[in-house]
Design goal:
By secondary structure, the chain is an all-alpha fold. Helix content is about 70%, strand content about 0%.
Length: about 200
């Protein structure tokens, strides 16, 4: 019991220093917004160091050769998410991201950032939480809260935070039920892309 308590404390400290503090440094502009991608890459590298130290396998993180076996539930989830975003665009004021294909920075960083978010939040954080908490609902909700908090750096945070919390619940639940890092990354990339071009995410 003492070992679990100690491991939980370590996980809370890791969440504080690797997720919450970096986000707050961006929010209060201690770190310029232009460096958010660099910061995310840095956090990802630190987390992969934790993974290596813990000797996790690819399978532990949801990377396996039979990844296509979950294609149907992930496809349904992704299509449902896209339809929801299109509906949301009809009822919520937004400013579409026009000419996105001309934005080289967006094109170069978009897919890697979406994939890294899934490696960080589902591949690593979910595993960390599952190691020390036995309640699946608590793990999914906590994972979603940390994921949503990262989006406080966006301008319309009063709208973005609840939306990303709901998205986080979906991603975390899908990953918990169908542990597939490749397909959850693909789904996140598609949904992120649709949300971006619809103009739901605007950096402060």
């Amino acid at each position: 019991m003492d070992d679990i308590k100690k491991e939980r404390e370590i996980v809370w400290v890791q969440i504080l220093y690797l997720f919450l503090i970096p986000t707050l440094l961006l929010y209060f502009k201690v770190i310029p917004g232009d460096l958010r991608a660099v910061l995310l890459f840095s956090v990802a590298i630190l987390l992969l160091g934790i993974v290596k130290h813990a000797k996790w396998t690819y399978e532990d993180m949801g990377i396996h050769k039979e990844y296509m076996q979950d294609i149907i539930p992930y496809s349904i989830f992704t299509v449902a998410g896209v339809l929801f975003l299109i509906w949301l665009a009809q009822v919520v004021p937004h400013e579409p991201f026009l000419n996105w294909w001309k934005n080289i920075k967006f094109l170069l960083l978009f897919i890697p950032l979406s994939v890294i978010q899934e490696i960080v939040f589902r591949g690593v954080l979910m595993k960390m939480l599952q190691k020390v908490f036995s309640n699946p609902l608590f793990v999914i909700v906590l994972n979603s809260l940390v994921f949503a908090f990262m989006h406080v750096i966006y301008l319309n945070s009063m709208f973005v935070l609840p939306m990303t919390f709901i998205a986080g619940l979906g991603f975390a639940w899908m990953y918990y039920k169908y542990k597939n890092l490749i397909l959850i990354s693909a789904s996140h990339t598609v949904l992120n892309f649709v949300a971006m071009i619809l103009g739901f995410f605007i950096i402060r």
